[in-house]
Amino acid sequence: MSLIDNYNSKQEPSISLEFFPPKTSSGKANLLERIGRMNILDPTFVTVTWGAGGTTAEKTLDLAGIVAQSFDTPVCMHLTCTNTDTAAIDEALEQCRALGIRNILALRGDPAIEDNAEGTFGEFKYAVDLVRYIKGKYGDEFCVGVAAYPEGHFSMEDDTSVEQDPLRDVQFLKEKVDAGAEFVITQLFYDADKFLAFESMFRAQVSSTVPIFPGLMPINSYLLFNRAAKLSHASIPQDILDKFPPEIQADDNMVKSIGVDILIGIIDKIYRRTEGRVRCFHFYTLNLEKSVAEIVAESPTLSHIVDEGDESDEGVISDEST
Ligand code: FAD
């Protein structure tokens, strides 16, 4: 099923979930059980990540295929195009067809440093080239989405970092939407005001109708929270940092519980301030369920999902690593 059809069929706020393919078969079995339990959260769609250059192709297709065939939820497979040729893209898309995967998040990926230095990106230089290729060859068979960066995309030119600037990126985001992208998922962020400014700019300059799904990563440990924000070039507002005084930073349970409140605050602010225009919240789950389930259960915007859910279903269990 097209994720846009599912999104359009729901008027109430909802969530979507990102998973990555585990390395081992026991990790895969654990994750599939977890995804089964998380079905109670009625995700509008589930995405599965792709290693740039096709490094996880087999495992990504395997996981995405099983999820597509086991649940009613639309599955969206990430697909990167850097250092890739059309034959590899076609092979991945043919497999998606066979597995019933109808949604693709078309990404550039990050070229390996040595490839970047030589300026050899393969047949596709930017994500827009992949969007054009899929739409040109497969038409509406795939519902295609793209990435966006509320604080601007971090990039390097001649070994120097280019200042992040959402205004500079927006013209390229418009190219991707004009090429046929039907939805946008953002990089993770913790500054709701930066997302809101970006959403306004997107509405004014790119599209008044294409949905934007804000990317949210639950806070599971203070160290990982800071590391993820740094790797994603996402800023952490001072008032959020102030919620983690040094004496609690090593207490993961305390950090998680504060993190749940922070994410609830971000979601509710975005839903209210956009007057419901933004109504599907995308979680980078890191293959964990507990914080996401708590956020949904306790958020005034999202708790209707579990209140309306089938009470006979089992709730959340634990977060063992996958
Ligand atoms: P693009 O849209 O091509 O943009 C890349 C850069 O080029 C930007 O700075 C942009 O401003 C600039 N640009 C774009 N078009 C032009 C143009 N015509 N001329 C000049 N400059 C241009 N990576 C993975 O490897 N696997 C994943 O599964 C994955 N999933 C992701 C999911 C989400 C929601 C997000 C936000 C990112 C994900 N990434 C993933 C990371 C992503 O691949 C990197 O951030 C990558 O550096 C950029 O990808 P893009 O699709 O945004 O690229």
From TrEMBL:
Q: Where is the composition biased (Acidic residues)?
A: 308-317
Q: Which domain of life is it from?
A: Eukaryota
Which family, according to the similarity comment?
A: Belongs to the methylenetetrahydrofolate reductase family.
Q: What is this protein called?
A: Methylenetetrahydrofolate reductase (NAD(P)H)
Q: Which organism is it from?
A: Maudiozyma humilis
Provide the taxonomic classification.
Eukaryota, Fungi, Dikarya, Ascomycota, Saccharomycotina
